[in-house]
Amino acid sequence: ISSNNIQTATAQCVSGALVSGPGWLNGNGAFGGLTCDGHAFHIAEFTDQRCFNNFRVIRVGFVVNNVFYPKYFSCFNPNRLEVLYTWATQNPSHAVHQTGVDRPSWLAGSFFPGVNINNLYTQNHQRNSIAQLVGSVELANRYVTSTQFLARGHLVAKSDMIFATGQRSTFYFINAAPQWQPFNAGNWNWLEQNLRARIGAAGYHTTVYTGTWGVTQLRNQAGRLVNIFLNNNQLPVPLYFYKVVYDASRRQGTAFVSINNPHYTLAEVRALTFCTDRCRNNNAFNWLRWQPDRIDIGYSFCCDVNEFRRTIPHLPAFTVNGLLA
């Protein structure tokens, strides 16, 4: 395309995987063979749109011919360095995605002035922060190990985007929150995968709101639970991660919730379950392969969206008349 000095090009389906590209492609070519010699770069910027508590919405996407094409949005609290929630479209086409895409470095953008946000996620910093909060280096070393540490947990997942350009755009810190690694690789990963497959199989056209709520706690030297932050009273380690999946055409939705703490007891996680679990013993959710009672990989449950809102009120208003399963 660069040799033709054009900004955009249209590929038209011929048959099977073959496409034609009048004006830029010589003959027909395999769609899978179309590659770029460089990455189209994404943009993350504040908008004038407002979300919960009057925070400004951030949009992430691409500019083509002076038109902004959004991939996802983030509701971000700059005072606490806290991502409340993100939202993105998920349709049947998102059931598959380009594979073999390298993971780029995480980006701060312009949203963390004066803060080395990447450093706050390092394991050494995690241990130091937790040691101060619990009053013990030894205790902090038990909480943070080589296998049990806080990862940069994607909200909009890398694989929620179909192509490499979109996947690379998910690596902004305004799309992440501290998430215990076994949970990140456990029930949260199962939810991401199963949800994409289910939306594809059922033909749903959804908006997925992915967010955080509360502050997780660890026991200090005296056995008392204390709130965990990674930067004084900023960058809280969330108590809950959730996905609210909503199909506006059906007016149906479901909230999937997980507890981000492998150190709680069974009694504690049950006390933190704030709704009737709509997935448990419900054949309509057999597609969901998580292990909800596993505290070590994220104790999990599902809520009716209206019941979910009574505890977590920060999503925008939309009408939900039943579960989306």
TrEMBL record:
One of its GO terms (molecular function) is metal ion binding. InterPro entries: DNA/RNA_non-sp_Endonuclease_sf, Endo_G_ENPP1-like_dom, His-Me_finger_sf, Non-specific_endonuclease. Mg(2+) binds at N184. Gene3D superfamilies: Extracellular Endonuclease, subunit A. Residues 68-308 form the DNA/RNA non-specific endonuclease/pyrophosphatase/phosphodiesterase domain. It holds the Pfam family Endonuclease_NS. GO terms for biological process: apoptotic DNA fragmentation. SUPFAM superfamilies: His-Me finger endonucleases. One of its GO terms (cellular component) is nucleus. This is DNA/RNA non-specific endonuclease/pyrophosphatase/phosphodiesterase domain-containing protein. It comes from Pectinophora gossypiella.
